[in-house]
Amino acid sequence: MSGCESRPKRAGYKWPEKMGPRQLQHPAVAAAIGSEVQVRLSSAGLTVDRTLAEVRRIAFFDPIDIFEKDGTVRLITDISPEPRACIAGIEVVELFEGTGDQNHCYGLLKKIKFHDKNSSLDKSMRYNALYRDRLEVPQKRTLEDLILGTYDDADRGSHE
């Protein structure tokens, strides 16, 4: 049993799992929890501005920033922090040829995976309310309005 359930049980409540939703209906409890959440987010550096900056960074990242002019991948220490934060993972594989005493490394295969740009763009679009996630139902019209055409021209264009 978790701490959230054990405390109400020790206090004598029969159904501790029902206490959370019930307690959240009290404004003082909801405010105290909200205040604590803000303190913890702030101390962890999870501000709205910082979160949006990370979403922006990934959404508008240009991979050219990690390559040299000759097309080779820059050393990780030579990549600036902004593009480096967009890297989700790096895999380096040594390529060998030959057998026995003739076995030697002839190159490196470097695989770089970036954070999902579409996901960041999607989050940015939602934050800026550029998506319509909800169906907007126009005002109710009577059959008479529809027959006589006595509704706004703006409504008519969206329903024809």
Overall tally of domains = 2
CA(first)-CA(last) distance: 58 Å
Share of residues in strands? 5-15%
Which range best describes the helical content: under 10%, 10-25%, 25-40%, 40-55%, 55-70% or over 70%? Answer: 40-55%
The backbone outline, from C-alpha atoms, is extended
Which class do the helix and strand fractions yield? alpha+beta
* Strands ordered across the widest β-sheet: 1-2
Largest sheet: 2 strands, antiparallel
Low-pLDDT stretches:
none
Number of DSSP helices?
A: 8
**Mean residue pLDDT:** 82
Radius of gyration: 29 Å
Order of helices and strands, N to C? HHHHHEEHHH
* Beta-strand segment tally: 2
3D architecture notes:
The protein is of the alpha+beta class and 160 residues long. It folds into 2 domains: 1-46, no CATH class; 47-159, no CATH class. Helix content is 44%, strand content 14%. It is built from 8 helices and 2 strands.
